[in-house]
Design brief:
Layout lengths: L18 E3 L8 E3 L5 E11 L4 E11 L9 H6 L9 H12 L8 H13 L1 H21 L5 E6 L5 H13 L5 E6 L3 H13 L7 E5 L3 H11 L5 E7 L8 H10 L1 E12 L4 H8 L1 H4 L10 H10 L4 E6 L2 E3 L9 H10 L5 H4 L2 H13 L2 E4 L2 E5 L2 E7 L1
Helix pairs in contact: 3-12, 4-5
The protein binds S-adenosylmethionine.
Length: about 375
């Protein structure tokens, strides 16, 4: 939740606790004041780890010579002012609009995701697939090459990346490896860095950290004209969040080197997530995810781009029995993550909640020995260079 604390709007001293920069690149947001005579540019969002709130720390204010026309940044800087109070209401409104576009995990979503990982067996299922599939793939990708470059997009805390990179090194011990990581969550990137620091098998890998969303990375690569190419690119459980599915796949596929592979792991078509999110699209697709994508949408897109691919099913189920006990904290937390809410019980009407729970039990799960197991099969799609 974006909010103001500590009373001062501009400057990095807002709030009672140290702030962490969220976005590497400035976020710009344009808005008019009530009289349509001023434009505001907000940039740099900071996140307070202790209060789990985000703050604007720089606000550029400009009186536009012509209402509706954007001034040059240099003009704006001249008017960087403390005269922000009259605009604070308006600014908060703007920030709320900006918040909806934030897809990378910060604050409560980091804890919610961590909780989900501990209860879903998802990483274990993905790693089983990786161990079956990747050694052979790595051998094919590496044929005739003296080094390998890997790109992880939306890598989160890097638990899966670390294991895949370890697997790559044990498959091809003599081949030097670099790993570029594109992840917009500063908190999860810090977790990933800490994991690298304590993992002996990763010490020889040269990491390059891009703490930004995939879209900003793409823009940066295009602006620099510096197309570093990669042998293996992976996007694990993150394709739901990108602005444009087709252009994203096209872009990352274009970064593949000879014999390279782009691996996309996504919820399986017709699995539990697909049914839940498509049935309750109106209620659920309102935040970071505006259009739910399962392997069906990804494969349709890959086909429409004329790309060569293969698909591997990753079977997984997890126990959601607690979700049907309204007084269970763990059940509530699972429901929070599965519906991308902070508070499942406060976010929907009783009718919608009942409909979701009914669907979860009767259409998305199977029952065994009195327990309810949610179908969370995944699909691993390997796209060729
Ligand atoms: C479900 S998590 C998956 C993390 C990791 N790949 C895993 O499987 O553990 C989704 C990740 O995508 C990141 N993310 C969301 N939107 C993104 C974007 N536009 N560009 C890059 N990463 C993004 C989130 O911050 C989060 O780390």
């Amino acid at each position: 939740m974006f909010g103001l604390e500590g009373g001062v709007l501009a400057g990095v001293t807002i709030g009672p606790s140290p702030l962490l920069k969220i976005n590497q690149s400035p976020k710009r947001y344009m808005s008019m004041d009530r009289n349509n005579t001023a434009q505001l540019q907000l940039f740099e969002f900071w996140h307070s780890q202790s209060s789990s709130k985000s703050y604007i720390t720089k606000v550029h204010l400009s009186r536009a010579s012509q209402p509706g026309k954007r001034d040059l940044l240099s003009d704006w800087r001249q008017e960087e002012q403390s005269a922000l109070c009259p605009y604070s209401l308006h600014i908060q409104g703007s920030v709320m609009a900006e918040e909806a576009k934030q897809t990378c995990y910060e604050g409560s979503s980091v804890q919610s995701f961590q909780f989900y990982l501990e209860h879903s067996g998802e990483h274990e299922a993905i790693l089983k697939c990786a161990h079956n599939l990747l050694p052979g793939e790595f051998q094919r990708i590496a044929a005739g090459k003296s080094s390998l470059d890997v790109l992880g997009v939306g890598s989160g805390g890097g638990e899966v990346d670390a294991q895949m990179l370890t697997l790559l090194q044990s498959t091809l011990p003599a081949v030097p490896v670099t790993a570029d990581i594109v992840e917009g969550s500063a908190a999860l990137t810090d977790n990933f860095k800490a994991l690298v620091a304590k993992t002996a098998t990763l010490q020889k890998i040269q990491f390059v950290w891009h703490v930004m969303g995939s879209e900003d990375y793409e823009k940066q690569v295009r602006a620099k004209g510096d197309m570093k190419k990669f042998d293996f690119i992976h996007m694990i459980q993150m394709i739901y969040y990108v602005d444009n599915l087709s252009s994203t796949i096209k872009f990352y596929q274009s970064l593949l080197k000879n014999n390279g592979k782009l691996m996309i792991i996504v919820e399986a078509a017709d699995g539990g997530w697909d049914k839940l999110w498509k049935t309750f699209k109106k209620e659920l697709c309102t935040g970071a995810i505006t259009e739910y994508r399962s392997s069906a949408e990804v494969i349709a897109c890959v086909k429409s781009l004329g790309l060569k691919y293969e698909e591997h099913v990753i079977s997984n189920t997890f126990d959601i029995t607690e979700c049907f006990n309204p007084s269970s904290t763990n059940g509530g937390r699972l429901l929070n993550f599965m519906t991308a809410q902070d508070h499942f019980y406060q976010s929907f009407t009783p009718e919608i909640r009942a409909g979701m729970l009914d669907l979860l039990r009767n259409k998305c799960s199977t029952e065994k020995d009195g327990r309810v197991f949610f179908n969370s099969n995944l699909s691993c799609i390997l796209i060729h260079a």
